[in-house]
């Protein structure tokens, strides 16, 4: 086995507001180019404290086309609704995997109960690209509750991994994906370590939400920091210097052009213009 080496570390990306409900650090963006494929964006929101409010904070109705959004809630509560009449709520440990496909308009806000009592919000939103043949697929949702996400216990009592998507040690996650993607929510105990096998050729990233780790015996990754790995190699060795929470992402790159503008990600500029025209004409 050969290690996937760290190529760089995103250490301080700053924070900005998305709507009035999500203060995020953007760790990945489609402007970075093909090195992050099949991923397009990774926003880490929080942890942020919100006082009680009668009006839920968040993002008003907005469009998406050409990819999928994956929302993972660590603390707090998020509600959504779309122009097809779908609605739902996810809380701590839950995941919403939304396929925007040919186009959807939706609202994302704090849950009404959470808004009334106030509290801590911490969540991830990940954008996963769709290959050209699936860009215009029908929109859809996968609501993946915490109780339905399998947990893999690591050897030696090192910790545990929730397998949201992909496979780990023969355990498959519940998320249905268009291309091979691993999304693992990991907890490691302080002083413990683990070796993760990730296919050679896959892009891979590790975000530290809490704690601190050493990767491959050399690179220190702290809180709110993201490690980028080489596609070459098939293992990542992680040692936690204290109790740590990690998000481990890996996926088979999609070898196609990426052209994005705001909430639309397609393969050509003409497709972007068509997406804008369709949105303005009410064809989503």
**Helix segment count?**
2
Task: State the low-pLDDT regions, or none.
Answer: none
What is the residue-mean pLDDT, rounded to a whole number?
96
* Rg for CA atoms: 18 Å
Strand content: over 45%
Q: How would you classify the helix and strand content by structural class?
A: mainly beta
| Distance N to C terminus | 47 Å
User: Strand arrangement, largest sheet?
Assistant: 1-22-19-24-17-14-13
List the secondary-structure elements in sequence, H or E.
EEEEEEEEEEHEEEEEEEEEEEEEEEEH
What is the 3D shape?
globular
Number of strands: 26
Oligomer: single chain
The biggest sheet, with number of strands, parallel, antiparallel or mixed sense and barrel status, is: 7 strands, antiparallel
Percentage of residues in helical conformation: under 10%
